[in-house]
Amino acid sequence: LMKYSDILVTDVSGCSNEYMFFDRPIVVADNGILPIATGKKPLIWNSLPVCDDPNKLLAMVDYEFENDSKKKERNEYFNKHVYQEEGSTAKERGIKAMEGLLKGEKKWDF
Fold first, then answer.
1. Residues 67-93: pLDDT tens digits?
2. What is the b/e burial string over 25-43, where b = at least 16 CB atoms within 10 angstroms of the residue's CB?
């Protein structure tokens, strides 16, 4: 489903990391509850627009759909926080794997 969506609205879920593969806008809907494991806002939120007012969420989604205001920060975060191997990145390997899945392939030669 991620492949077919134009924007992701999420909370503290790890799906925001996965969705970064598609290089599309992500909006965090801050529910006011900090993650139990850390007790603080996730580092990833520094690279994504965060909405802490439910009444403004739709307007923020509309704005981000048109402007993708944190694209640069999001891509910097993504490229910095994934495992990198000489000659390729996790992002490149992940995209190749997803494309293979969409084509019905069961094996990939990384």
1. 999 999 999 988 887 655 566 666 677
2. bbbbbbeeeeeeeeeeebe
